[in-house]
Amino acid sequence: MEKYYLAIDIGASSGRHILGHVENGKILLEEVFRFDNKQVHRNGHDCWDMENLWDGILSGLKVCKDAGKIPETIGIDTWAVDFVLLDADGNLIGDAVAYRDSRTDGADKISRTRAARGIASGI
Length: 123
Prior knowledge:
Elements: E1 4-10, E2 14-23, E3 26-36, E4 39-42, E5 45-48, H1 50-66, E6 71-77, H2 107-117
Parallel strand pairs: 1-6
Antiparallel strand pairs: 1-2, 2-3, 4-5
């Protein structure tokens, strides 16, 4: 029985499911599903549409199941600069405000200025 491994890559504009397996000593990869990743304007901020992301992840898993290619493992990578806060029960307590939101305008200049003065490193 073939063993499959799934990578879910979530980028700023789309997500994709890449399924891999080993055949004759070679790693073979195939894109099995792709979905749009979009921002929505919520509470005055540009936010990631978490429901759309979750639906996209689940839809891609269903494609794997329907193809009879159930992954042994799943890894997910994202743009890695945004976050959500969770309560003690794992529920979202706020929006997933995107790094492209205007709330961070000018933060790069402040960071460079503080770093140059040694404030960021505590020197």
